[in-house]
Amino acid sequence: MQERLGTANLPQKKLLLQAMSGECTSQIPFWLMRQAGRYLPEYRELRTTAGSFLNMCFNPEFAAEVTLQPLRRFGMDAAILFSDILVVPYALGQSLNFVEGEGPRLGPFENFAEIDFAAFDKKLQPVYETIRRVRKSLAADKALIGFAGAPWTIACYMVQGQGDGAFNDAKKFAFSNPQEFDRLIGTLVTATSRYLIEQIRSGVDAVQIFDSWAGLLPEPYFERWVIKPTRRIVDNIHKAYPAFPVIGFPRQAGALYQKYAENAGVSCVGIDQYFPLEQAARTFGDKVAIQGNLEPVFLLTGGKTLESEVRSLLEKAGKAPFIFNLGHGVIKETPPEHVAQLAEILRTYRR
Ligand code: CP3
User: Which of 74, 230, 284, 347 could potentially form a cystine with 264 if both were Cys, beta carbons 3.0 to 4.6 Å apart?
Assistant: First the structure.
């Protein structure tokens, strides 16, 4: 079983970490992307008190509370730190606003060749404090997941200033200035490694690297800007914390998932709902653990549909080490009762 530096003599009881170390667990660990968020009334209440979304991310008391809210209700096997992937460009010095109902807006793009590490670390201190607080309140059998955006996905937002699902302007910039784009990716590898290593030092049990827009890159750029930078971050983490569990989530990578699983260096690969779980289990389930991949609209739907879709998905995992999750985040209109229904199915299922 995988051992974590400094905790080698502690009994390993966290189901999520067992699956991540390659065990075919009988009970399936689960958590949900965006499990803390607007579908929960207690989140919306605190969000109103906090004012802006960024205020909530950078207030350790609020952020720790929101991180724990879904576990109190549903008993997931892991909490995910409440923050956002865009705090990294913000800490590098790019201005950031979340426009109500419209999503993130970043200030003018600048290729930060030199990182002001003192300023970067200082701006991110509240995140590390949130981790320490959550750690204190979390039960011994629950894991805490830290996270960051992958360099490609973060660069998309930094260059284009906002998301639109296609990122043609960011891609056009990257394809016409590949060397300059390489330098930006390099800066993000350094910053993200540092950020994740600090999260680990503060107490997270695993980290997830979100590459939400990985599916927008064709070969050979997928290798250049998705696989290689991720590999460098994982290697940096492992220099400080050997064998530390890392989940990579290159969303909509399709046929390139296998290459990612074989070369990104991660211990677990998150798959979206468009990639067959059966195929993942068969083709790379012996090399990495697999996480995913329920269509989020089944959770929105609930009832018999949810029940039968969850059961059929669980069968498809076969004997692969498996963590149940959605293929993308919880949709904000999802009734919390549907999440309770899902939690009950998973708590009682055995393979
Ligand atoms: O529960 C969790 O999963 C942890 C917290 C978390 C958030 N964002 C909170 C959030 C995590 C891990 C993220 C990651 C994130 N943020 C990604 C990668 C995952 C993905 O969704 O593909 C991306 C691309 C972002 C950038 C981002 N943040 C966008 C595009 C938006 C606006 C879209 C929206 O849903 O409003 C956000 C805002 C955001 N991040 C919210 C939450 C709960 C909603 C803000 C609010 O409460 O008003």
Answer: 230
Q: Is 182 near ligand 1, meaning CB less than 6 Å away? A: no
Kindly give the number of the ligand 1 atom that is closest to the alpha carbon of 81. Answer: 4
231 is catalytic: no
The answer to whether position 299 is within a domain reads yes
User: Is 65 a member of any domain?
Assistant: yes
Cβ(162) – ligand 1 distance below 6 Å = no
For residues 17 and 286, what is the distance between their CA atoms, to the nearest angstrom? 16
11 pLDDT band, cuts 50/70/90, is low
CATH number of 64's domain: 3.20.20.210
Q: Does ligand 1 lie within 6 Å of residue 89's CB atom?
A: no
Give percent of the chain with pLDDT exceeding 70.
Answer: 97
Residue 8 covered by a domain: no
Q: Average pLDDT of 204-224? A: 98
C-beta 265 within 6 A of ligand 1: no
Q: Measured between alpha carbons, how far is 186 from 23 in angstroms, rounded to an integer? A: 34
Question: What is the distance between the alpha carbons of residues 63 and 67, in angstroms, rounded to a whole number?
Answer: 6
Distance 210 CA to ligand 1 centre (A): 11
Pocket test for ligand 1, best of 84, 158, 160, 332 (most atoms within 8 A of CB): 84
Query: b/e map of 211-229 (b: 16 or more CB within 10 Å)?
Result: bbbbbbbeeebbbbbbbbb
pLDDT in tens, 165-202: 999 999 999 999 999 999 999 999 999 999 999 999 99
How many domains does one find in the chain?
Answer: 1
- pLDDT at position 296, please? 98
| Distance in Å, CA 82 to ligand 1 centroid | 9
Provide the mean pLDDT of the chain: 95
Active site residue 350: no
pLDDT tens by residue, 235-282: 999 999 999 999 999 999 999 999 999 999 999 999 999 999 999 999
- In whole angstroms, what is the distance from residue 149 CA to residue 231 CA? 14
Q: Is 213 in the pocket of ligand 1 (CB under 6 A)?
A: no
Helix and strand totals (H; E) in the chain: 16, 9
Residue 178: how many CA atoms within 13 Å on its side-chain side? 5
* Domain presence at residue 212: yes
